[in-house]
Design brief:
The structure holds two protein chains of two kinds. By secondary structure, chain A is mainly β. Chain A contains three helices and 30 strands. The N and C termini of chain A lie far apart (56 Å). Classes of the chains: A mainly beta, B alpha+beta. Chains A and B meet through strand 1, helix 3, strand 18, strand 23 and strand 24 of A and strand 1, helix 2, helix 4 and helix 7 of B.
């Protein structure tokens, strides 16, 4: 043991170097049994989180048993018991997953959250976080794109050509109450809600070129945050609501920047690559996910550390991957990928070591992962 | 009760509380610690340092492979040298235009959506700024198809226009060209497409009614 360092030194000089790889998470092995309908959904939820892995009860590190007793559903996670009222439903299964996730990890789950995206017919679609239960929200013959869910999960903002101009519309998640949110001449798009819902950052071009504007929640009082000759788009609020990440070509090509919500203190985040776009700030505040084009001219998903500007890769050698959005707990992302032919939605952990397809042979674009809805 | 007994009792209570807190914390500690994953260490061969300006790549598997193969080369004869291009073709398949200077062949979902929507915006503006010459009959209007290319500046101004494929009715072509020149701005193109529309242009298929 005393001479281990010497052995390491010799080994290092002869063979190469000891490379400390990025930390990797080992999934927690779990067994879910009982009511087959609920157990199937709960197990799928837990596995989709990237934290759990299904195994046999005999060798599992944790067990979950779901018993259906007339009007009551009893869930036992190791020695802890949870009680629910019947009937059995997908919503109830997601609630069970949330409780089990919190019991084992100490953190809140996101299994009742939803994802909004636009489909091949340019209509807005709302899906459960696992890609199930897709519902068409807009039903018109126009182009509806770039949807985003509000912090309370009740409204969707999106850009539509209903009035022959790219205007921003809002609609309830049940498809009701469609109304114009911003209809200035030119582009009205790329909305991002402040975490408390009091303000909205968006891209407008009514003054000649695309710039970032900060408006109140009714889009009445708007203030331009960016200026100069460059184009500035795709704003995304930080979780504390004090900063905004955005894309600008002020350095000659699209790169990711951050600024305060008063437009001051602009800081460039990405210096690697020549084409970085679509930033989304993590709910944990430390990372920004973006789509970047690498030196092989392929688009992939990357993460940028806000403080150190260090870039890490999430996807590689698997089709075109773009437009990522964080899960409400900041530990997963959803993005669209063409790796299996059609443009489908995938969820991934932040290391890229766990990636799973959640839609099949669909055409979903620009997914946005909404908040964890409180029951 | 003496002072010593009181101090002893207080000390016992304090220790009891601390022990209780420790036990409670140990019991309710989550089974999965999401923020403390294990760190993996591998023995990697030293190579040429990667250019810091390039985006990072996963190379752990390649690095470990290179270490493994080093010892094997002593036993097995060196394989026949392959053309690097053949190796790349074998690995990545047919080279695609994905991600070329002005975007990928398919484009990212964002650029593709923006292109669709901006094209719709341009088409709408063109439609509202020209009139079908009266001399063109309704029957003929059904079959006319004009392909034009517009070069658009960063503020939406028309830089240049050219006819890529005439419709065979010069009056119709002329009406479209005149109408397009009346438009002071098509609106600022999306950032991701501004360069493309300025240098390569935007191809628009234009029909008096609906394109068949």
């Amino acid at each position: 043991m005393k001479y281990l360092w010497l052995l390491c030194l010799i080994t290092n000089s002869v063979f190469g170097q000891l490379k400390v790889e990025k930390a990797r998470f080992r999934p927690f092995e779990i067994s879910v049994s009982g009511n087959s309908e609920l157990a199937k959904i709960v197990l799928n939820d837990l596995e989709l989180s990237g934290v759990f892995k299904n195994t046999l009860a005999a060798i599992a590190e944790g067990t979950v048993k779901i018993d259906l007793l007339q009007e009551q559903i009893i869930v036992t996670a190791n020695n802890k018991t949870f009680k629910y009222k019947a009937p059995v439903s997908r919503k109830l299964a997601h609630q069970i997953s949330n409780d089990v996730y919190k019991f084992f990890t100490g953190e809140s789950g996101f299994f009742n959250s939803q994802i909004v995206a636009s489909n091949k017919n340019k209509q807005i679609i709302l899906l459960d976080f696992d890609g199930e239960n897709p519902r068409q929200i807009t039903k018109n013959n126009s182009i509806n794109i770039l949807p985003v869910l509000s912090p309370d999960g009740k409204d969707i903002l999106f850009t539509s050509y209903l009035n022959k101009n790219p205007d921003l519309f809002s609609i309830k998640t049940d498809g009701s109450n469609l109304k114009i949110f911003s209809n200035k001449s030119g582009i009205n798009s790329g909305a991002s809600f402040a975490p408390n819902g009091s303000q909205i950052a968006l891209t407008l071009s009514h003054e000649g070129k695309s710039d970032i504007y900060l408006c109140d929640k009714n889009c009445q009082n708007c203030k331009r945050l960016t200026s100069g000759f460059s184009l500035n788009t795709s704003p995304s609020f930080s979780p504390d609501g004090k900063q905004i990440a955005f894309v600008s070509n002020r350095s000659g090509n699209p790169q990711i920047y951050t600024m305060q919500t008063d437009g001051l203190n602009i800081k460039r985040i990405t210096f690697q690559g020549k084409y970085n776009q679509a930033p989304k700030w993590s709910p944990l505040g430390d990372l920004i996910v973006f789509t970047g084009r690498d030196e092989r001219n392929i688009f992939d998903i990357f993460l940028a550390n806000v403080n150190s500007s260090q870039i890490t890769r999430v996807t590689q050698d698997q089709g075109s991957n773009d437009e990522a959005s964080f899960a409400p707990n900041g530990r997963m992302i959803v993005f669209s990928s063409t790796r299996n032919g059609s443009r489908d939605l995938f969820v991934s952990n932040l290391e890229g070591s766990f990636q799973k397809q959640i839609t099949q042979k669909s055409e979903y674009w620009t997914p946005n992962w909404g908040p964890a809805v409180k029951d | 009760m003496t002072r010593f007994s009181k101090a002893l009792l207080a000390s016992l209570c304090l220790h009891g509380l601390l022990l209780g807190a420790y036990v409670a914390f140990s019991v309710y500690e989550p089974a999965v610690k999401l923020s403390s994953p294990s760190i993996q260490v591998t023995l990697a061969k030293l190579g040429k340092p990667r250019d810091e300006k390039l985006l990072p790549r996963f190379d752990a598997s390649q690095a470990s492979q290179s270490v493994e193969t080093k010892s094997e080369t002593k036993k097995i004869a060196a394989p026949k040298k392959q053309n690097p291009l053949d190796i790349l073709k074998k690995r990545f398949g047919k080279p695609s235009n994905e991600g070329k200077q002005h975007g990928s062949a398919q484009g990212t979902s964002l650029t593709s959506e923006l292109a669709d929507s901006y094209e719709a915006q341009v088409l709408e503006l063109l439609r509202s700024n020209y009139e079908i010459p009266r001399i063109i009959s309704d029957r003929e209007a059904k079959y006319l198809k004009l392909l034009i290319k517009l070069w658009i500046g960063p503020r939406g101004e028309l830089l240049k226009i050219s006819v890529e494929q005439p419709s065979k009715n010069i009056r119709f072509d002329q009406a479209v060209l005149t109408g397009s020149k009346k438009i002071s701005s098509f609106g600022a193109p999306p950032l991701q497409l501004a360069r493309k529309y300025r240098t390569e242009g935007l191809l628009i298929q234009f029909c008096p009614l609906e394109c068949l």
